[in-house]
């Protein structure tokens, strides 16, 4: 239907928010989900899609006419709420799989191979940049978060991955849990001194200490114990 024919009444969500990503998606893929309107062309859901299409200068938008009576605003409001809330976002593990497949699909189309396959690349609508950057951005991450998430999916214990997918643990926290723990060795000055005396003998160790202190510009005063 024509965008100009869609009637926007007093909506709960009056601010569409940031539309850049949605506009880019519509430019590349089109409107994947039609907006919903009443038989009188009153908008039920799809406000952000409508605003993005307007911003792109489009004149028409896919629309689904839903048989809602004009005197039944409750049903329309429930549809608006359900269309925005009753959906399941991708888990981090699913995002990693999506990004991984995109990265694999882009392999060879960037970097050093780009000039060799120039004609082939021109036939494909491929955005410029690193494949991992493009893959990460496609699921709403940056490259570092994507790298960490891949590490978690590939190497984290099942219970850690389950917490991340359930939203109980962030990707960065899970990544820290996944990294090998560094062993810390602590040795005291007394331990080192005792080892040095054992290796060199008390007399030579004392002379070594004297030379070190002298080289550091300290006055030397050996207290016998």
Order of secondary-structure elements:
HEEHEHHHHHHHHH
Oligomer type: single chain
Coarse morphology: elongated
**Average pLDDT number:** 77
> Termini, distance in Å?
98 Å
Poorly predicted runs of 5 or more residues: 110-124
How much of the sequence is in beta strands?
A: under 5%
| Count of individual beta strands | 3
**What proportion of the residues is helical, as a percent range?**
40-55%
**Biggest beta-sheet profile:** 3 strands, mixed
Total DSSP helices = 11
What is the number of domains?
A: 3
Using the CA coordinates, give the radius of gyration: 32 Å
Order of strands side by side in the largest beta sheet? Answer: 2-1-3
Structural class category: mainly alpha
What does it look like?
The structure is a single chain. The chain is mostly helical. It has three domains: 3-85, Conserved hypothetical protein from pyrococcus furiosus pfu- 392566-001, ParB domain (Alpha-Beta Complex), CATH 3.90.1530; 92-178, no CATH class; 185-225, no CATH class. It has helices at 20-29, 47-55, 73-85, 92-106, 118-122, 131-138, 143-155, 158-165, 171-178, 189-200, 202-215; strands at 35-37, 43-45, 63-65. Strands 2-1-3 form a three-stranded mixed β-sheet. Strand 1 and strand 2 form a beta hairpin. Helix 4 (92-106) packs across helix 7 (143-155) and helix 10 packs across helix 11. The protein is elongated and about 100 Å long. Mean pLDDT is 77; it is low at 110-124.
């Amino acid at each position: 239907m024509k965008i100009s024919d869609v009637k926007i009444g007093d909506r709960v969500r009056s601010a569409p928010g940031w539309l850049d990503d949605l506009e880019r998606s519509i430019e590349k893929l089109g409107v994947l989900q039609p907006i919903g309107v009443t038989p009188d062309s009153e908008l039920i859901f799809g406000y952000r899609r409508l605003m993005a299409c307007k911003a792109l200068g489009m004149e028409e938008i896919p629309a689904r006419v839903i048989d809602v009576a004009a005197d039944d605003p409750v049903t329309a409001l429930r549809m608006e709420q359900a269309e925005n809330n009753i959906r399941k976002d991708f888990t981090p593990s699913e995002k990693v799989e999506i990004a991984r497949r995109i990265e694999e699909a882009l392999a060879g189309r960037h970097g050093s191979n780009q000039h060799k396959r120039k004609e082939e690349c021109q036939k494909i609508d491929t955005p410029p940049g690193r494949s991992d950057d493009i893959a990460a951005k496609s699921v709403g991450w940056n490259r570092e978060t994507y790298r960490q998430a891949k590490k978690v999916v590939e190497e984290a214990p099942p219970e850690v991955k389950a917490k991340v997918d359930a939203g109980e643990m962030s990707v960065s926290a899970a990544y820290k849990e996944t990294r090998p723990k560094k062993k810390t060795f602590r040795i005291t000055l007394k331990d080192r001194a005792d080892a040095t005396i054992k290796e060199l003998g008390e007399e030579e160790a004392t002379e070594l200490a004297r030379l070190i202190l002298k080289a550091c510009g300290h006055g030397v005063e050996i207290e016998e114990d």
